[in-house]
Write a structure and sequence with these properties.
Length: 598
């Protein structure tokens, strides 16, 4: 497709400008067709980036391993360049926008030499929906172009809708120009020079040096969370790191819920859950990001801005998450998993029995005795959402789906109960603000450390997190609002031997059933210092190898441990200085008082 297919002045001028800055060998406008996708995957197979998988095992699917220095998001290389440092806040890396532009201009100068520059128009949200926004990613990575075709709506149809309208410019380069006749590597990246940069006021994104996931597929974390959260605050809506699911009870009553858990803490799994309770049904609207706006009826309506899943592979199996396995049966891309001798993929947890021989994510021969991982812990599958067997009928509804409950949670091996409910929206906002979780492999850094990750948005909030807390409190004050109830869950409690106490996965339906019941007064609760908690027998343990006594252990409120946590929360809150809303100080005071009186 050529640039004659758009007359959008801003877009044409920007493409020209980027071409002059980056000096690619050629410019290619993506139209989004199947032929084009095949052309791109052929190119990637030829360059050694992709291995085509066995057509009988995974039709039209590809295996890919990254540079070992480019396997996850890089939070210390991620910048929010607001005019004022206080608008980025204490949890973001701030950089002066002018100085950063200078830095970026020198990095991007000539950075696409020897490469093709792809222009990729994409829509976050259903095409033409009032809540959707258009972005254009310019990239020198065909891997990114292929991934965006699965995870967003992209191509000519987006340009048709864009017309003369505005879009978010997203510029990306792997940062490895090629000299004449220089041979390329399978996964070009510039490990020493990664820059993931956001200009919220200008609504622009520049990303340099990484080809991986959230660093490079700029519609996802950079646009749909960091830039969108900034827009959402200005416009009175919410852009959140949340899954969206539909839940139907045996009587046929249906509700929608959204849940924010930090990266690699169970969103994809909960979104596609296969219920262990008969006649309950879960359907998927989204697995990672929710945009929520008020409808005329005062309810919050959510859309999934994405069109595909970029899901954690390890731990995903027919036993834990069959709907994910069925989603990725074809037309998918697998990054940093292991390759079987017969051209299929494997990862830890996929099958009980380990294959006798594999090529692992580093390209080394692997056997069950190997000390290396077969798949990198942050290896991922990229699969179209419409291949999910339980995709919700309304997943592309431009109006979104009405949310009845919002869940927060993280990975905590001790003392945080299985579930509790907020007294009201402000208390729920407090619960979101105190989310903390063990660090996972989704971001580079030390795995296992417990870190605060308020609202699971710590790496994704495009402005001052103190202002973000206030924005959540303000949402609760909107006139005529019918707000969802808020809950906190923790599937990850462990015993002394490091074994999970709660079986999780499909059994989580038992907790969702109680939450469902709390939204229509069908389930009972008692008041505790933390919030409302299930009364004895209120969580359905039918046909489960798990007793009410065992349940009480993971619903216990450990007063002394929580009083220590209160101290910890106060310490964390200090970071926000005068930006910490008084409403949250009141909440932590009230929690302390309730604990002391309990
Ligand atoms: P991002 O895509 O990084 O935002 O992650 P996510 O929140 O979608 O995480 P995902 O559902 O992919 O889960 C990450 C890991 O947690 C996988 O290895 C899962 O197998 C595991 N997991 C998910 N749900 C449960 C659960 O209920 N119990 C236990 N023990 N593990 C779980
Ligand atoms: C996450 O880390 O929360 C992800 C994966 O969903 S990435 O797109 O790489 O950010
Ligand atoms: Mn995520």
């Amino acid at each position: 497709m050529s640039d004659t297919l758009t007359t959008n002045k801003k877009l044409l001028a920007w493409v020209k400008e980027v071409e002059q800055l980056c000096s690619p060998d050629s410019v290619y406008w993506c139209n989004g067709s199947q032929e084009e996708y095949t052309m791109l995957t052929d190119t990637l197979v030829k360059s050694g980036t992709f291995v085509k998988l066995n057509e009988d095992k995974k039709p039209n699917s590809f295996y890919c391993k990254s540079d070992p220095a480019d396997v996850a998001r890089v939070e210390d290389r991620t910048f929010i360049c607001s005019e004022k440092p206080e608008d980025a806040g204490p949890t973001n890396n701030w950089f002066d926008p002018k100085a950063m532009k200078e830095k970026l201009n020198s990095l991007f100068k000539g950075c696409m030499k020897g490469r093709t520059m792809y222009v990729i128009p994409f829509s976050m949200g259903p095409l033409g929906s009032d809540i959707a926004y258009i972005g254009v990613e310019i990239t020198d990575s065909a891997y990114v172009a292929c991934s965006l075709r699965i995870t967003t709506r992209m191509g000519k149809k987006v340009l048709d809708i864009l017309g003369d309208g505005d879009f978010v410019p997203c510029l990306h380069s792997v940062g490895v120009p090629l000299k004449a006749n220089q041979e390329d590597v399978a996964w070009p990246c510039n490990a020493e020079n990664k820059y993931i940069v956001h200009f919220p006021e200008e609504k622009a994104i520049w990303s340099f040096g990484s080809g991986y996931g959230g660093n490079a597929l700029l519609g996802k974390k950079c646009f749909a969370l960091r830039i969108a959260s900034y827009m959402a605050r200005q416009e009175g809506w919410l852009a959140e790191h949340m899954l969206i699911l539909g839940i139907t009870n045996p009587e046929g009553e249906k509700k929608y819920m959204a849940a924010a858990f930090p990266s690699a803490c169970g969103k994809t799994n909960l979104a596609m859950l296969t219920p262990s309770l008969p006649d309950w049904k879960i359907e998927t609207v989204g697995d990672d990001i929710a945009w929520m706006k008020f409808g005329d009826d005062g309810k919050l309506y959510a859309i999934n801005p994405e069109a595909g899943f970029f899901g954690v592979a390890p731990g995903t199996s027919m036993h834990t998450n069959p709907n994910a396995i069925l989603s990725l049966h074809s037309n998918s891309i697998f990054t940093n998993v292991a390759l079987t001798p017969d051209g299929d993929v494997w990862w830890e947890g996929l099958t009980k029995e380990k294959p006798a021989k594999l090529t692992n994510w580093l390209g080394n021969e692997w056997t069950p005795d190997s000390s290396e991982y077969a798949a990198h812990p942050n290896s991922r599958f990229t699969a179209p959402a419409n291949q999910c067997p339980v995709i919700d009928d309304r997943w592309e509804d431009p109006k979104g789906v009405p949310i009845s409950a919002i869940l927060f949670g993280g990975r905590r091996e001790s003392f945080v109960p299985l579930v509790y409910e907020a007294f009201d929206w402000s208390h729920g906002t407090f619960m979101g603000s105190i989310v903390s979780s063990e660090q996972t492999a989704a971001s580079e850094g030390k795995v296992g450390n417990i870190c605060h990750d308020p609202f699971a948005m710590l790496p994704f909030c495009g402005y001052n997190m103190g202002d973000y807390f206030q924005h959540w409190l303000d949402i609760g004050k909107k006139e005529g609002a019918h707000l969802p109830k808020i809950f906190y869950v923790n599937w990850f409690r462990k015993d002394e031997n490091g074994r999970f106490l709660w079986p999780g996965f499909g059994e989580n339906i038992r907790v969702l059933k109680w939450i469902f019941g709390r939204t229509n007064e069908a389930a009972t609760a008692e008041k505790t210092a933390l919030g409302y908690m299930p009364t004895k027998g209120a969580i359905d343990l039918t046909d489960m190898d798990f007793t009410e006594d065992e349940l009480r252990k993971i619903l216990n409120v450990d007063k002394e441990r929580w009083l220590a946590e209160v101290k910890e929360i106060r310490e964390f809150y200090k970071k926000f200085e005068n930006k910490l809303p008084k409403g949250l100080t009141k909440q932590v005071d009230a929690l302390e008082l309730r604990l002391k009186n309990s």
